Amino acid sequence: MTATDVKLKTYLNYINGEWSASETEETGTSYNPANKDEIVGFYQLSSSNDFDQAATSARAAQKEWQKLSGNVKGDYFLKAASILEERIDDVATTMTKEMGKTFPEAKGETARGVAILRYYAGEGMRSNGDVIPSSDSGALMFTSRAPVGVVGIVTPWNFPVAIPLWKMAPALIYGNTVVIKPASETAITCAKVIECLHDAGIPSGVVNMVTGKGSVIGQDIVEHPEINGISFTGSNAVGKQLAHTAVSRGIKYQLEMGGKNPVIVANDANLDLAVEATISGGLKSTGQKCTATSRVIVQNDVYDKFKEKLLKKVEEITVGDGLEEGTWMGPLVSEKQLNTVLDYIEIGKEEGAKLLFGGNKPSSSNAAIGHYVEPTVFEDVSPNMRIAREEIFGPVLALMKVDTLEEALNMANDSEYGLSASIFTTKISNMLSFMEDMDAGMVRINAESAGVELQAPFGGMKQSSSHSREQGRAAMEFYTNTKTVFVKG
Ligand SMILES: NC(=O)C1=CN([C@@H]2O[C@H](COP(=O)(O)OP(=O)(O)OC[C@H]3O[C@@H](n4cnc5c(N)ncnc54)[C@H](O)[C@@H]3O)[C@@H](O)[C@H]2O)C=CC1
Ligand SMILES: O=C(O)CCC(=O)C(=O)O
């Protein structure tokens, strides 16, 4: 489709169980990053009044939703999961068209969304408290969980199905109602996910979606008096700004933000495995994951061999439209992201790092129509360089050489972030020191830094998160408040 195509679809807000246009009568345009002239569709540029309606309807629906039993709530998720599964090709195609990741990756993420819904459907049937012996032998004391109320959800563009679902599903199963504001870049993919919940018959007002500018709707989400908690994934700057307002209002907040994730390759590593995982962890989704590998810390004895094997594989990477068969790496999400990544590559060169591979937009004529960049590898990167310290969010690997494992661990920990970290080693003593001494929320041994499992806690240390955890049963901590109940007959 092109800008002149009259059949393009305009996507609406979802408020109180109905699809509605914004009162502003304005729309934003979602473009395909693989072909910047291609329009994927239009989404609402909503106003604060639109948001107010969504928050009010979420509030009105909350008590009744809370009172449904866990299995009844879970049934809606099971239905929505089956609908999403039936639509997997359409949703994944939309995702590839909106944000650029390859179709197999987009399909994998959509399948993950199906699994998230099924996992949290069961959560409504699991225990949610403890019986605690009272010092009064005639009393019963136990804990139970109360929903937070109405939860505001602000999501990024890099996982447009999985992140909205891993926030909405636990929020809902624990009895909250939600208003979500997805990233504009992937607003249409999110609308298609919400459509599955709508078609599953979820009661009106329980789920609401309002699209529009972060500076308007994102800010409303944290300021609106009906919002009792906010869950955010995105940049550190925006996350911290939202947290300030949340603290001043005394509401709950949860932030998942950046990473500068290291992989350590020890002298005794299986180098083929380490190379494969560095490429997958660093370059899949064109490096646009908060868990992406960006610092590759390699011990001296294997440095040259590892570098040679890595470059051989990186050279084989095919860059192109994620919908085309044979493409391994798609474009970056937007021109803004492309410029950020190209700027960091220039900064790396100016700082004295040695560019081993890539660093440019690909030279093919097709590449000119999209936000493409070559997979890029630097070496001689020192810990104080900006490319070793700041989140680039693109396909850029920084090789760093060390003598000892102790030095490697110190270097890996020398970051304001602490989201995910990997080591490649066959020695149990190396594994144990890494597990013990690595300051990261996700510590992975002989596995890539990216790729989280939906049933396990996910989140970072230091500046990577607000120190809470998402996913698995850990999600209960944020989406509920504990009540301690004391009963005396
Ligand atoms: N941790 C992660 O998974 C992600 C990290 N990022 C990082 O952020 C950088 C910039 O990407 P952006 O898309 O610009 O991230 P962003 O933090 O601006 O956007 C994330 C979400 O916040 C919303 N938002 C933006 N401004 C807001 C405001 N003032 N108040 C409330 N909500 C607001 C956006 O509309 C979007 O829904 C990336 O280069 C990357 O380093 C971006 C996306 C995901
Ligand atoms: O690595 C993953 O699967 C999840 C990454 C993630 O949550 C993110 O990039 O925001």
UniProtKB/TrEMBL annotation:
Keywords per UniProt: Oxidoreductase
Record: active site: 256
Organism: Lentibacillus populi
Gene: ycbD
Similarity field: Belongs to the aldehyde dehydrogenase family.
A GO term, aspect molecular function: oxidoreductase activity, acting on the aldehyde or oxo group of donors, NAD or NADP as acceptor
InterPro entries xrefs: Ald_DH/histidinol_DH, Ald_DH_C, Ald_DH_CS_CYS, Ald_DH_CS_GLU, Ald_DH_N, Aldehyde_DH_dom, AlphKGSA_gudD
NCBIfam families: AlphKGSA_gudD
Domain of life (superkingdom): Bacteria
Aldehyde dehydrogenase domain mapped to chain residues: 19-485
Stated name of the protein: Aldehyde dehydrogenase YcbD
